[in-house]
Amino acid sequence: METMVYVSLNGVVTEAVGTQPKDALLFAPSKKARRKLYLSRRRIDGEAVN
What is the dihedral of CA 32, 36, 41, 42, to 10 degrees? Predict the structure, then answer.
């Protein structure tokens, strides 16, 4: 199964195909569960996690 990669350019998000301009923002969904991402982000930001 391939991971889809998306590009945001000038506020428009589309599937990334081929080369992208230097000012484009590329992103892909994480394989982590949403809750794990949230908890790891809180740890990085220095908040206490219960």
Answer: 180
